[in-house]
Design a protein that fits this description.
The complex is a heterodimer of chains A (about 240) and B (about 475). Chain A is built from seven helices and twelve strands. Chain A is an alpha/beta fold. Chain A has two domains: about 30 residues; about 180 residues, NagB/RpiA/CoA transferase-like (Rossmann fold, 3-Layer(aba) Sandwich). Chain B is built from 22 helices and twelve strands. The chains are: A alpha/beta (about 240), B alpha/beta (about 475).
């Protein structure tokens, strides 16, 4: 058997021989890459309002709970959501805004908490980097307000705060917004699920079984339309 | 316990392996149900996606570009992943890959490892190898754990336990997890698996995964999953080992905008799978602090060297081809004798075996083209199947056994018969008498001896009519009718 160095050389050598006739000449790889035709939809056509409605609809189809709040209403909306769970112990990323830590709950702030400590919490509140309406996807880049990956994984209940200005319609729009990849990304589309037994969709296997989302109408989004908000809040 | 053999070196030929399945109505029902559900979910989602064909075209073009420039992108991946704190290993074949992984596990003093579902690990038969070496590999995907605990074999690459129904899962779980009162409600079964695995996630410090995509531009790895077992394995342990075929690389981060749109829709009929994770080397304070990638060749470069077959490597393992294949939907996956079943398996497996094994697989297709039509990266599977069939014939032509093989002898005889009318007519006359013995009253032949049995073991044959067309025509001309 050959050593690892030989294997590397052998594999790359075989690839080189095999692709000789078709590989882009040295220094022209980027040209060949850019020549790949991309005629799919990049930019969505929906208005901001319908785009938000679409996100809400798609999240609900995944059995996520969604509410909408103004920036002023946010701390109260968070407290509301926490209260509905009947739970008391919540984890929070180290960089979560202080005003989001609703009083009356036992907060475990993640200053490198051990997995065992996080396992003892009953829920978690995090921010997000982006949300994609078309597929109902929330994107975490694990910044200080979004927390380490483990913090939004072990607790059974996840409340995610998404600002309306972070919502894009299509997946390519997300990539336009973040052309440079962060080191860590988690794309979340609804709570953990499986269909491994007879293709029956079961919510909640190993990740959080409950996903709640608050969409905050921050600057740059049109004023709250009562019709949408009250309909959403009524659910 | 399953008696299925998924090692192409030892598996029986396809036409023999299908027999137990065709005679197992429960298995056929389970497979038909599951594939039907995915088919209809996928169709519904595609109808709302106006740019589906454009996405397919781009996905196919990106994958073609990668494969044609594989060397450059692999070197780029290696450089960036290493710069981010990962360690890249290269394995020419299954033996080397297994040895590298075991060596890494030994360095960790590991006696156990938790695993994210990976077909590549099944391809190199990693679990039994580790078990023999004293490392217990715990599968954590729900389907994989059903198979592992039930000592069953996977029959699909996305939903590997689709041939097992809820009551069978209940039986496996209640027996192996010692849960006497477990119900067969999928909810209860899923909860049992969650409880069973939780302790392992928190305790075992070494994980093994596959990868859906490697990103050359950034040195990142992406895993697409549903349950969160993947996130557990790539977040909680101290050490992570990823085994991945060399063809899985993508040029840039942005290419995920195409791949993530087509993969879940094709695989499970969802707009997006619940969780997709991307990580880059090692991140201080978050996730495993030791990270290894094993890049596996295992005959992929041989496939790359063949211009017509090269497209096989575009595959992103969505399994749409098997969900839509009229053969797979009848037989399920086990008959293919490989961890890669269905149309993609029929072209991939023989090539991974250098055409020395699994030679009946290219014939396990009606060439209807459904697989090509649904493939999100446009692999022309029927064209590759035909080319591989030609290869098989070329190989067999050189073999002495061909001189005595009943089928080849039969074809030579047929050639002689068809080229001389008087011999042909005489043969017809004898044939009518000979086959008459086996023809039922309803005009069908349901059993034939010897080589004829190869036809009648799976399908009925029309008996010869009392009169040939020539005879009828001659009589008509005489005016007797």
């Amino acid at each position: 058997m050959n050593g690892p160095v030989q294997s590397r050389q052998r594999i790359l050598g075989r690839i080189c021989t095999a692709t000789q006739a078709v590989a882009a000449p040295a220094g022209h790889l980027d040209e060949a890459y850019v020549a790949v035709a991309r005629t799919y939809v990049r930019k969505g056509k929906l208005t901001r309002e319908t785009c938000l409605e679409l996100l809400i609809e798609r999240l609900r189809e995944y059995d996520a709970e969604v509410v909408v709040a103004s920036p002023d209403e946010l701390p109260a909306a968070i407290a509301d959501q926490l209260a509905t769970t009947g739970k008391r112990v919540f984890a929070a990323p180290a960089g979560l805004p202080k005003q989001w830590l609703a009083p009356g709950f036992d907060w475990k702030i993640d200053h490198q908490l051990s997995s065992a400590d996080i396992e003892l919490t009953e829920g978690v509140v995090t921010a997000a980097s982006c949300a994609v309406a078309d597929s109902g996807t929330i994107v975490l880049h694990h910044s200080p307000a979004e927390g380490r990956r483990v913090i939004s994984l072990l607790p059974d209940w996840h409340l995610c705060i998404v600002r309306a200005s972070q919502v894009v319609e299509t997946l390519p729009e997300y990539f336009d917004r973040f052309p440079k990849a962060p080191a860590l990304i988690t794309w979340i589309s609804g709570p953990s699920a499986t269909a491994d037994i007879e293709m029956t969709r079961i919510k909640g296997v190993h990740g959080p079984r409950f996903l709640h989302v608050i969409i905050v109408r921050d600057e740059g989004t049109p004023p709250i339309q009562r019709a949408l908000t009250s309909a959403v809040l009524a659910r | 316990m399953s008696t299925v053999i998924l090692d192409p070196k030892h598996a029986p030929p396809f036409r023999d392996a299908v027999l137990p399945v065709l005679r197992n109505p429960m298995l056929r029902k389970n497979v038909a149900h599951a594939t039907q559900v995915i088919q209809s979910k996928r169709a519904k989602l595609l109808a709302e996606k106006a740019d589906w064909q454009e996405l397919r075209a781009a996905a196919s073009a990106i994958r073609t570009h990668v494969i044609e420039n594989l060397g450059a992108y692999l070197e780029q991946f290696e450089e960036r992943c290493t710069a981010a704190g990962g360690v890249v290993h290269w394995a020419s074949n299954a033996d080397e890959a297994r040895a590298i992984i075991l060596d890494l596990l030994r360095q960790e003093n590991a006696t156990e490892a938790i695993k994210i579902k990976t077909m590549t690990s099944a391809e190199i038969q990693l679990n039994p190898y580790l078990e023999k070496a004293g490392v217990k590999a715990h599968e954590t995907d729900l389907a994989e754990i059903i198979l592992q605990l039930g000592k069953e074999e996977p029959s699909h690459i996305v939903v590997p336990a689709l041939h097992i129904n809820r009551s069978q899962v209940r039986e496996i779980f209640s027996r192996t997890m010692h849960l006497k009162d477990l119900s067969d409600d999928p909810k209860a079964l899923t909860a049992a698996a969650r409880h069973y695995l939780r302790e392992k996630f928190l305790r075992v410090p070494t994980a093994i995964s596959g990868a859906n995509f490697l990103i050359a531009e950034t040195g990142s790895v992406a895993i697409v999953e549903s349950e969160g077992n993947g996130r557990m394995c790539l977040t909680l342990p101290r050490t992570m080992i990823t085994i991945v075929g060399v063809e899985k690389v993508l040029p840039r981060f942005q290419d995920l905008e195409v791949m993530l749109q087509i993969l879940a829709r094709s695989a499970t009929g969802e707009r997006m799978n619940p969780y997709t994770s991307l990580w880059t080397g090692v991140t201080q304070g978050d996730g495993p602090q030791r990270f290894h990638v094993v890049l596996l060749d295992n005959e992929r470069t041989s496939i790359l060297a063949r211009p017509k077959e090269r497209q096989t490597l575009r595959c992103i393992r969505c399994a749409a081809c098997m969900n839509h294949c009229p053969v797979y939907r009848q037989t399920g996956g086990h008959a293919y004798g490989s961890c890669y079943p269905g149309p993609i398996g029929a072209i991939l497996t023989p090539q991974l075996m250098r055409m020395e094994h699994a030679q009946t697989l290219p014939f396990a297709s009606s060439l209807c083209g459904a697989c090509f039509e649904v493939c999100p990266v446009k692999i022309d599977i029927p064209a590759v199947l035909l080319d591989l069939r030609a290869d098989v014939v070329k190989i067999e032509r050189k073999q002495m056994k061909r001189a005595f093989d009943l089928m080849y002898v039969g074809l030579r005889v047929a050639n002689a018969l068809f080229s001389r009318p008087w011999i042909f007519h005489t043969t017809q006359w004898f044939g009518r008498i000979g086959l008459g013995v086996f023809t039922d009253k309803d005009g069908w032949i349901k059993w034939l001896p010897s080589i004829g049995g190869r036809w009648t073991q799976n399908r009925d044959l029309r008996g010869l009519p009392k009169q040939t067309f020539h005879e009828w025509w001659a009589e008509r001309a005489k005016g007797t009718k």
